[in-house]
Amino acid sequence: MRYVCPICGYIYDEGAEGVPFDALPDSWSCPLCGAPKLMFEPEAAPAPVAAAAAAPADLALDEDMRQLSAGALSALCSNLARGCEKQYKAEEAALFAQIADFFAAAAPRQTGVSLEELSALLREDLDAGYPALRAAAAAEGDRGALRVCVWGEKVTNMLYALLGRYQREGEAFLQNTQVWVCTVCGFIYIGDAPPDICPVCKVPAWKFDKIEGRRPA
To answer: The whole model's pTM is what?
Structure first.
């Protein structure tokens, strides 16, 4: 039997490894991206993805879909900056980054949000948001949106797994290690050094930024 990591695609082959997957300790994680054992899926029986109906072309948009918050605009412009950077358009990337910083400064700070609420939001994205986005992109034949959906879903899966581990282990989870973020796709890696290649978007280690100024334990 073979088991597949949904984040980076690593395959655990019981025949090659000589150890049944179920016999691995619960603390075992993907050797490439660090995804926990519980996220692995049998290769022969991947988890089904619920299909979502495409929205009618004449469907009126809700008001909250017409107007974005300052935080959402900051995230949007930041992503556009990353996209321009990847296309070697330095001037455009710098301009989008400036706009992103402007909206980030204008966005109200969120307080009182619990880890449980954040976990629930990530779970909602995985269960409903991404399936709906994937169906809409497929209906429109938008290959770019489909690619973004693939990356985004993998990163969200990893965020959900890391948050769950932090809830179980607390600050001990981050002691004597570093937090790294891929500047291309947003993948987060916990370790002394970034991975040689991003498990999601395959860029080299130098594309990772180390998160500084963490709250001390």
So the answer is: 0.66
